[in-house]
């Protein structure tokens, strides 16, 4: 999911942290953000990040990109301006996200501030009390409060931001566990990474062949919005390939989400069981073997699917299935993608979208005959030759 | 919200059946030049046509979810259709409608309401088992006298509904109707100046009924019902413009046509979540609804691309019999896909939807057009395993072809586990690169060996074919033929004997992994036997010796074949003779004399001695 890091650049951020005399709240925020960026560049390499700063105005410092080093450099350029206008910042950031992403992608907004809520009628407290404030867009709101428990406004800030997270519908408030020090700030950002930026690692299994993989973006639990049941369906960490279909037969099914499959073989040994001469792999050369030269099952699968214009069907949970296919972004770069199919909800008559894949398949050999569409379901029926 | 069950109460009275509804446009030529009398369709015909069109649209778009029944309100009160999928089609209804006789009485709608409520409390084939909200619609169409008539019918409906629900609760049979939407549609002939029934809408919260009253001219009834079906089932109209079609008369030129289709509104709403500022809506001429305009995009779509679609819904063509509609339908049913584009503000265009046919039905797919976080990803060849160049792509493609999927048939039990089992068999002991596998390197010589071994069971012939492959390799080894292992880097430094040794080790591991039946064991045993023989030979001599036997012959038996009779060994001649004699003796009955004589020579004329003795005594 794209992430927007919004930093409070008001004068109140220049207050020195009481327990950490050498640091201001702003400098603590910058250090935390750098740690965050380092984590992203190591674990979520395809994450798109943007940086913005607000005080009485809202300015985009760095547009959405994967240039994490560039973002780190621009962090240094943020200068404190004047007062913090939270409502202005929130409304401007919403239009920015909408302009960039529309309604399709759910953005995550990391809103780093010192908890100051403004004064008088324009304060967030007043606005929330009089119901003058609401969110227009849907996004995951993650306020990060650099606030010491000894401060007077501590309780009010936490309460107000919790209320705002409720209004947003998604997200959570983060604050340091204990006094505001460099360690608590770092551990706070660490917690944010664990909750919202944990990479998905799993395995892809095709019979006896398997490989560890990671999915980008990490799949979110599917929430079914039927009128009788609101279930949240998790995915297992194993993609089990059931069989293969021609792309022409697949017919562009509606996908819940798409994820890039990134192969991550364990370093050193080949991970393919049944490799007859495994013992021949020299363990002395483990550390210096280039990752690119270790055979990867995903690369083989991708090449075969692309050459034969086929897709692989896989089971991702008890009643959830997906399609693995090769996708070319432009003519030169192609990748292995996982498309998650809508979970089957047989009881829900409101779900009138087609779930053409009756999830129980059996396999055929290619000498029975060709497949052709049948009238019964969107699906196919064997023609016996 | 779309209601699963709808019943049409069609008033077949003298008023509707005999009154002229709307005039039919006829071009008549009479010799005298006097225009002939105009022919008018009765109100009843207008009603039926409109209802069937309404039903057709519902059946096209929601074939297994929304059910419709008709009740023809006359003396016989004919019920048409059932709450199952088999009866929900235009042909079935038209066949049953042909049995409707001529009308002979006044409006009988009131008397048919109980039958309608009884039907609505029956579950459809989807609703059987399980508690669901039974929300239904009752559409009463006829020529009503006045507002009071309508109001009486409405009150009757509400009272009967109440009573019906109470009966269901006490008896426990049937589904209580939780919400009923009642629609009174008053149809009056075209020549009437003013309708006698006024339109209104009322909601009765306590009884959970919603009543709508409409009054429509017969000539306008079709258009009105179309607008009604859009509202009831949350459908949207889309016009596909700019479809190039060739004229029959002028085959060289093509003109652009428009085809209007209906589909669930959700197909557009998905798009609205993205960026739909440029979507153009126009009010259709003569109709009360708006239609969105999407332009046909010349299909250069390859069937081998997987487009990112967020949803797919069925469509219904509005004007089914028009030439452009049927042309587009046939084009789609032929397997081609059509992309639809939407103009964006700023002049550019965006592909927003796709029409394609699956299983004989036509669907509209909504494409995801918004920016994705997966834009510009690194190529897979830049990541792990990307620099390896000898993946066994063709061999894996063969596995993919063998493991293709097809729909479940009711005969199959646990098809998923069967599918997993098959793919596991095919990938047991399967090296993914050819640079480390001797078996992969020698695949031409291996022939069908790998294809056969992955099967569950082997036939006798297949076992022999596998054994033949093993013997071939043995023969090659004995002759000293080189193996085609140039791809294997580790093989370059090794001697030919080591190549064969590695090959046979790999074969053994492969066969052990696949030992799932007796026949597989036989093949493995054959390999082990060959290797043990070959192993002894090599140990004895130290060098491989050319064998004078043909390579195809089985290996020499170790022990000499010896035959004994008792303890003494006999010669081949004696043995053969013995066999021949035994065989011959089985063919005829033994002479009695021989049997009596036993082993030695049979003595002849035994009685002669005794007779001589007798004579000498006399």
From TrEMBL, chain B:
An annotated GO BP: meiotic cell cycle
Keyword NAD: no
Keywords: Cell cycle, Cell division, Coiled coil, Cytoplasm, Differentiation, Meiosis, Mitosis, Nucleus, Spermatogenesis
InterPro entries per UniProt: Cell_cycle_regulator_Mat89Bb
GO cellular component, one term: perinuclear region of cytoplasm
Subcellular location: Cytoplasm, Perinuclear region; Nucleus
Keyword Membrane: no
Highest taxon listed in the record's lineage: Eukaryota
Subunit: Belongs to the multiprotein complex Integrator, at least composed of IntS1, IntS2, IntS3, IntS4, omd/IntS5, IntS6, defl/IntS7, IntS8, IntS9, IntS10, IntS11, IntS12, asun/IntS13, IntS14 and IntS15. The core complex associates with protein phosphatase 2A subunits mts/PP2A and Pp2A-29B, to form the Integrator-PP2A (INTAC) complex.
Family: Belongs to the Integrator subunit 13 family.
Name of this protein: Protein asunder
Organism: Artemia franciscana
């Amino acid at each position: 999911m794209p992430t927007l890091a919004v930093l409070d650049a008001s004068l109140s951020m220049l207050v020195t942290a009481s327990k950490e005399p050498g640091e201001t709240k702003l400098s603590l925020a910058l250090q935390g953000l750098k740690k965050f960026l380092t984590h992203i560049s190591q674990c979520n390499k395809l994450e798109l990040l943007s940086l913005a700063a607000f005080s009485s105005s809202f300015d985009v410092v760095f547009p959405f990109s994967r240039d994490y080093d560039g973002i780190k450099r621009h962090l240094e350029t943020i200068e404190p301006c004047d007062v913090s206008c939270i409502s202005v910042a929130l409304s401007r950031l919403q239009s920015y996200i909408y302009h960039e992403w529309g309604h399709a992608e759910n953005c995550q907004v990391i809103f780093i501030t010192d908890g100051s809520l403004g004064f008088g009628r324009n304060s967030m407290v007043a606005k929330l009390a009089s119901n003058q404030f609401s969110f227009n867009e849907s996004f995951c709101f993650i306020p990060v409060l650099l606030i010491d428990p000894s401060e007077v406004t501590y309780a009010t800030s936490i309460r107000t931001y919790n209320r705002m997270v409720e209004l947003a519908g998604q997200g959570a408030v983060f604050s340091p566990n204990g006094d505001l020090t460099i360690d608590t700030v770092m551990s706070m950002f660490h917690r944010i990474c664990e909750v919202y930026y944990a990479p998905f690692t799993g395995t892809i299994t095709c019979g006896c062949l398997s490989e560890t993989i990671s999915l980008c973006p990490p799949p979110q639990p599917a929430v079914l919005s039927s009128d009788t049941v609101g279930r949240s369906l998790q995915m297992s960490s194993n993609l089990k390939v059931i069989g293969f279909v021609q792309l022409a037969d697949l017919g562009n099914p509606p996908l819940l989400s798409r994820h890039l499959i990134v192969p991550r073989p364990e370093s050193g040994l080949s991970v393919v069981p049944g490799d007859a001469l495994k013992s021949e792999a020299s363990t002395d050369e483990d550390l210096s073997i280039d990752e690119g030269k270790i055979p990867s099952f995903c690369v083989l699968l991708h090449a075969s699917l692309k050459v034969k214009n086929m897709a692989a069907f896989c089971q991702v949970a008890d009643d959830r299935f997906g399609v693995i296919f090769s996708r070319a972004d432009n003519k030169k770069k192609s990748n292995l993608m996982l498309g998650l199919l809508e979970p089957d909800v047989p009881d829900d008559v409101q779900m009138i979208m087609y779930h053409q894949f009756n999830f129980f398949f059996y396999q055929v050999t290619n000498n029975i005959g060709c497949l052709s569409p049948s009238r019964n379901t969107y699906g196919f029926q064997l023609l016996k030759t | 919200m779309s209601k699963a069950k709808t019943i049409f109460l069609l008033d077949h009275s003298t008023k509707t059946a005999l009154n002229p509804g709307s005039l039919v446009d006829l071009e008549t030529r009479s010799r005298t030049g006097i225009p002939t009398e105009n022919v008018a369709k009765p109100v009843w015909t207008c009603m039926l046509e409109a209802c069937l069109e309404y039903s057709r649209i519902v059946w096209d778009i929601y074939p297994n979810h929304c059910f419709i029944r008709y009740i023809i309100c006359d003396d016989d009160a004919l019920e048409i259709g059932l709450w199952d999928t088999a009866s929900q089609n235009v042909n079935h209804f038209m066949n049953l409608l042909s049995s409707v006789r001529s009308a002979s009485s006044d409006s009988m709608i009131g008397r048919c309401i109980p039958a309608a409520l009884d039907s609505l409390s029956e579950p459809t084939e989807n609703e059987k088992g399980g508690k669901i909200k039974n929300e239904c619609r009752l559409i009463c169409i006829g020529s009503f006298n006045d507002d009071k008539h309508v109001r009486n019918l409405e009150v009757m409906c509400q009272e009967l509904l109440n009573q019906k629900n109470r009966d269901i609760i006490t008896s426990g049979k049937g589904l209580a109707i939780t919400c009923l939407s009642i629609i009174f549609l008053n149809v009056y002939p075209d020549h009437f100046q003013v309708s006698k029934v006024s339109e209104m809408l009322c909601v009765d919260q306590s009884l959970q009924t919603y009543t709508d009253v409409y009054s429509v001219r017969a000539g306008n009834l079709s258009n009105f019902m179309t607008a009604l079906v859009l509202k009831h089932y949350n459908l949207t109209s889309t016009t596909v413009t700019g479809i190039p079609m060739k004229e029959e008369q002028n085959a060289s030129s093509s003109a652009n046509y428009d085809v209007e289709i209906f589909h669930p509104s959700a197909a557009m709403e998905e798009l609205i979540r993205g960026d739909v500022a440029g979507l153009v809506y126009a009010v259709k001429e003569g109709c009360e609804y708006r239609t969105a305009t999407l332009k046909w995009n010349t299909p250069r779509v390859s069937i081998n691309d997987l487009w990112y679609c967020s949803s797919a819904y069925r469509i219904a063509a509005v004007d089914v019999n028009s030439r452009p509609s049927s042309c587009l339908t046939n084009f789609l049913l032929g397997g081609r896909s059509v992309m639809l584009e939407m103009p964006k503000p700023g002049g550019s265009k965006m592909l927003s939807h796709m029409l394609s046919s699956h299983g004989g039905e036509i669907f509209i797919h909504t494409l995801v057009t918004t920016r994705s976080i997966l834009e510009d990803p690194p190529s897979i060849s830049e990541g792990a395993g990307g620099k390896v160049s000898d993946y066994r792509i063709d061999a894996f493609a063969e596995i993919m072809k063998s493991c293709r999927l097809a729909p479940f048939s009711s005969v199959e039990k646990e098809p998923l586990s069967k599918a997993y089992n098959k793919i596991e068999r095919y990938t047991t002991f399967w090296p993914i690169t050819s640079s480390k596998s001797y078996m992969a390197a020698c695949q031409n010589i291996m022939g069908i060996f790998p294809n056969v071994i992955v099967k569950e069971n082997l036939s006798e012939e297949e076992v022999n074919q596998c054994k033949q492959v093993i013997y071939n390799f043995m023969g090659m080894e004995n002759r000293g033929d080189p193996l085609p292992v140039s791809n294997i880097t580790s093989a370059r430094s090794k001697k030919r004997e080591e190549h064969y040794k590695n090959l046979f080790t790999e074969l053994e591991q492969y066969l052990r992994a696949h030992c799932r039946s007796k026949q597989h064991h036989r093949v493995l045993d054959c390999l082990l036997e060959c290797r043990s023989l070959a192993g002894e030979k090599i140990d004895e001599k130290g060098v491989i010796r050319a064998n004078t036997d043909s390579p195809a012959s089985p290996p020499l038996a170790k022990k000499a074949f010896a035959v004994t009779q008792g303890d003494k060994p006999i010669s081949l001649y004696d043995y053969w003779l013995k066999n021949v004699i035994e065989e011959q003796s089985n063919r005829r009955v033994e002479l009695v004399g021989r049997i009596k004589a036993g082993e030695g020579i049979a003595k002849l004329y035994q009685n002669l001695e005794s007779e001589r003795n007798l004579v000498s005594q006399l």
